[in-house]
Design goal:
Mean pLDDT: 87
Number of strands: 8
Low-confidence stretches: 1-7, 20-27, 296-307
Largest sheet: 8 strands, mixed
Distance between the termini: 19 Å
Radius of gyration: 18 Å
Number of helices: 13
Strand order of the largest sheet: 1-2-4-3-5-6-7-8
Helix content: 40-55%
Shape: globular
Order of helices and strands: HHEEEHEHEHEHHHEHEHHHH
Strand content: 15-25%
CATH architecture: 3-Layer(aba) Sandwich
CATH class: Alpha Beta
CATH topology: Rossmann fold
Length: 307
Amino acid sequence: MTLLRRPRARIVRLLAAAAVLLGLAAGCSTLEYERQLTFRPSRDVAGWFAGIPAGAREVFVPVGDPAKRERMVAWWWPAEDANAPAVLYLHGARWNLTGQTRRIEQLHRFGFSVFAIDYRGFGKSDGDLPSEASVYEDAQAAWRWVGERQPDPSRRFIYGHSLGGAVAIDLAAWLSAEGEPAGGLLAESTFTNLADIAAALTSEWLPTKLILSQKFDSVDKITRVRMPVLIVHGTSDHMVPSRFSESLYQAAPAPKKLLLVDGAGHNNAMIVGEDAYRQALADLFHLPEVAAARVTPRAVAAARPAR
């Protein structure tokens, strides 16, 4: 189910119950409805979007069946240092890249070159309704693109927020199985699996594990990740409770770190807990340049509740 704000929780409960009933009768059509609720893909420009950050450029990445010639739209924002660590940014449900600028800017201020994608079906990317399989495929294609820009695997990192955290964990598990090294995985404000978060947002009595076709089973996959793992969550997140990140942390192999940011909600842990966030990145991923990153007046001004 889509990760919605608390005022919409009642709507989510009704939709979930409706999906259960419809699933008994509608079959295939309900699977499409489930994907729509899960991703809520948007092609609209966010109301607060002020343009692509200066220094970033829009790029197009081929993905999927070559016969379909589909492309993802992405932003590539290189750091001043040509050898800077590079991070693949994977966003969550609902908002496309135009709604992600604050976290992208923050990662760039930390010293990363940032590559942020819109999955197929989002923003200006090709494709229709996303699926669990399609977003995993998109992340793998994006990772190959990053590898061509930062050849040192120890300087390549995966970041995912909310539903994007599940995509990031899948990519990290896939890379681990393939024996491909990476610098580390960063999952923020995410969950154990889609059935658990659907039950938390609706009712525990719903047989969500049996009903949902989109699994996003992160708590199982994270046990197979063979790279450093940083898990971050705001303690005041009313959309995805922080207990899910605590469960992910317990399941993840070492080296790992859990950062719970006091007072942060679903979208602003990176801003509210900036100092601790930078230090955790530096310590776990061996990036002293991130710890040395200066807090700018712009960062301070941005420390208002994020959308």
